[in-house]
Amino acid sequence: MSLAKDIKSILVNEQQIKEICERLGKEITNDYKSKERPIMIGLLKGCVPFLSDLARHIDLPIEIEYMDVSSYHGGISSSGDVKIRKDMNTSVAGRDILIAEDIVDTGRTLDTIVKLLKHRGAKSVEIVTLLDKPAGRVIPFEPKYVGVTIPKEFVVGYGLDYEEIYRNLPYVGILKPEIYTK
Ligand code: 5GP
Ligand code: MG
Ligand code: MG
Fold first, then answer.
1. Phosphoribosyltransferase domain spans which residues (predicted)?
2. Alpha carbon of 161 to ligand 2 centroid (Å)
């Protein structure tokens, strides 16, 4: 059974993803070159392909950590209730933090995590996200580094899932609505 047959259209192709990682990697390398060992925190599981590709374009000594936070209970809409399922293993006190996300939609997840990391004493907290869906915002939130701004569509691939499937698609595509309405 092919995954591609469930995709209505490709929104960000492999070449575009490559260019985004190169561009953001250069920008981050330049902005963080005077900081001491920034920590990149990936939000599982959606961040995995993006963090892995982006980090290889950041030419600096960085640490990489992961947190598993969730505002989704499956399906295609956010619950608004952000839970920490797995915390990171290092103290963020006095550290420069760069959170890597797959997509910013309502803004609830990042708003909660940024507040938490600042409360824990992080020196700075910025966001790098592959996708930004500003039309979905419930809480005003502007990520510093954005790969590409997308319309209010439910997308999958390159880390993003629908009920845990499609994360391994090499591109970002719009899921056919009949997949989640059936
Ligand atoms: P927020 O808290 O900004 O509403 O949502 C962030 C999380 O919701 C993302 O990290 C992602 O897991 C999920 N999400 C938001 N929009 C989409 C989408 O279009 N497709 C998928 N697969 N997940 C999404
Ligand atoms: Mg995510
Ligand atoms: Mg998900």
1. 12-162
2. 10
Would you state the CATH architecture of domain 13-154? Answer: 3-Layer(aba) Sandwich (3.40)
Q: Where are the domains of the chain?
A: 13-154
Cα 123 to Cα 35: distance, rounded to the nearest angstrom = 11
User: Which residues, 6 or more positions from 82, have their beta carbon under 8 angstroms from its beta carbon?
Assistant: 69, 70, 71, 108, 109, 112, 113
pLDDT per residue as tens digits for the range 104-147:
999 999 999 999 999 999 999 999 999 999 999 999 989 999 99
Strand locations in 105-176 (E)? 124-132, 145-149, 155-156, 172-175
Is the C-beta atom of 156 inside 6 A of ligand 1?
Answer: yes
- Distance CA(80)–CA(142), nearest Å, equals 18
Q: What is the pTM of this model?
A: 0.94
77 contacts 53 by C-beta, under 8 angstroms: no
Protein residue with its CA nearest to atom 11 in ligand 1: 103
How far is 39 from 157, CA to CA, in rounded Å?
26
Which residues on neighbouring strands pair with residue 155, listed in sequence order?
Answer: 174
